[in-house]
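User: Show me a protein chain along with its predicted structure.
Assistant: Here is one chain, sequence first, then structure tokens.
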Amino acid sequence: MPTYDYECDACGHAFEEFQSITAKTLKKCPECAKPKLRRLIGAGAGVIFKGSGFYETDYRSAGYKKDAKADTKKTESKDSQKKSDSSKSSDKKAGKSDSSASKSSSKGSSEKSG
């Protein structure tokens, strides 16, 4: 809830009032009781964040950090496993293509000689 500045046009009394945004403006001065009160337009408050503790990750619990670390290790092990599987399958494919290439080259040479 914001703090609003008020000033009385009759007596000059100035004060701050802590009110909800939806609350109606005050009309009656608390000093002279005349209905000459007006709400002043302020520049607003500037918010300045100093120091550490303003990032979402700064407030993480120890349990959350531990679980996140475990998830990262699982992901890394799965990635390394996929890489080793893909290298094995590429070796197999390379072996098949080499053997089929050698068969076709031997057929080609026998056809030329025959």
